[in-house]
């Protein structure tokens, strides 16, 4: 197992980070495409690490979606990019390809099924790093306003689907789908605001999954967890849900302020989906907290005290914004 950990930390993870940096820093479309391909090839071995019960069907779905979109992207860049006046239909197609690569509608089912079958570090990368490059490329394009329809669909579908499950992994995946709706909603109005939302969302998701990884469980009602640890897990979940005055609430307010007043339907859709998201997070949190008697045991070594240092990150964006 130690050799596997060595390979993971010295080969796959640095390659994954390097491929993302290549995509973000390049001004060439072909180099960006190369970075996306290196990212895909590197991420596939990470999915099955270290001891996840990863189903080959889910892995194949993810590979087929990502590789098909990559082939289409290469085909467009090689054969249509040199043609004059090709941007009128090239940019919308690249836009659709990046939508598919980011794990949103209409091919979100493989993203959801993968989320329930992989390890916690792999889930963290899937929900954060794997979305960074496609979102960055989308922010560089002249985004059509058809994107707003996809954004509203993502928000509503993610919120409604989250109400139908009690599994924490699936709730995080559906919550990510709903957050993608907010990210895509801000993109036509401010690419900087879109990136800002994604950064705060990624930090919140990473901190939440770090805490669940330290306690070796995605459940809140384990007898080995004392009340303080349960409350800490509760706060991280409510932060993702967007409960004020946490940072999850701040970025949603920031997005709503970016949307012009004549886009009333978009604003109401985001507010409704945020309310539904808060409902299923509250249902998960309080049902788990009150389903067992509180334990007076000290915090286990797996629950690192350093996690408490992340508390300022939950509220700091709110203080800066207001």
Protein architecture, described:
The chain has about 325 residues and is mainly alpha-helical. The C terminus is likely disordered. The protein has one domain. The protein is about 75% helix and about 0% strand. The chain has 14 helices and no strands.
User: Which percent range fits the helix content?
Assistant: over 70%
Share in β-strands:
under 5%
| Main sheet attributes: strand count, strand direction, barrel closure | none
Q: Span from first to last CA?
A: 48 Å
Number of strands: 0
Uncertain runs with pLDDT below 50, 5 residues or more?
293-306, 317-322
The general outline is globular
Concise synopsis of the structure shown:
The chain is an all-alpha fold and 322 residues long. The chain has 14 helices and no strands.
Distinctive features:
322 residues; mainly alpha; 14 helices; 0% strand; disordered C terminus
